Amino acid sequence: MEIIEYTEKWKDKWDQFVLESNNGTMFHMQRFFDYHPKDRFTFNHLIFLHKGNIQAVLPGARIGDLYESPIGASYGSIVTKDLKFSVAMELVSTLLEYGKKTGIKEFLLTSAPRIYEKYQNENLDFAMLWQGFEYDLHYISSAIKLDPDREIIPRFQSTVRRNVRKALKNPDIRVELNERYDEFYPILLENKARHGVKPTHSLEDLLKLKELMPDRLKLFMVYYKDEPIAGSNVFICNDRVTLCFYNMLRYEYEKLKPIHRVMYEVVKWSTENGFQYVDIGVSQDTKADNPMTPSMSLIDFKEKFDAKTVMRNTFKINL
Fold first, then answer.
1. How many CB atoms lie within 10 A of CB 201?
2. Domain containing residue 157
3. Residue 284: beta bridge partners?
4. Can you give the pTM of this predicted structure?
5. pLDDT of 77-115, one tens digit each?
6. 45 and 108 fall within a common domain
């Protein structure tokens, strides 16, 4: 097995491999990375080959002596098919040999949570730990397990159930699945400004992503008497999981509980379209010194929708 550095000629084969993989997501695809302006990152994506065939891919970048994955994405680390343990061991040893040959002193790899896998397979994690990797950080995420045989609203906490039913009966409130990012983005900016931060994506970024991956972005907009008051920007990460990347509202309409209504619509749509989970993202206290500090209020809010904890783990090794 050998590692080569990604070049544009591998683009179609890379993305096809991710689509057919056991643990890949849209965040691992070259089509996703294309939304970044050329001067934003200097990527150094890696391809694991055996007899000319792709065995695994690793998106990321080298920053001095550090190789980090992901860069410019939510999830990274090594993407594989449903691999045997012996292959996992060889992938890791090949990566470490590559690092030593090229002067890399440290790898920092953050994979998608286990719910993103077609078949839960921890061979790669164990192979990494056995060969010297350690856990660096654990981020707490929340995800709703979907079940087409269960009614959605009764799964929610009582207050949420009441608010969803009330919103469904209100003729002045409607939810649309549309592409009105011009209406959504001002709400996003306003929400983030309340917490003293800016969105991960600019409006241009979201429009570019929508252009590059039109089937991967879904925008649920909530209207009150034709006024946009909230929205959920959902990423279709793979065939199993949808991700609520942004859930935003105009706070002057908070009493109408539009986030409760839009969460119901996202769960309903995801269930009807055959997905297994809705990921509601990480719940860390971003103002705390320790990046692992949980945001208790955010976790409690997500649990009201029957969300359970899933972990996003970061592996680290110093060579």
1. 18
2. 147-275
3. 294
4. 0.94
5. 999 999 999 999 999 999 999 999 999 999 999 999 999
6. yes
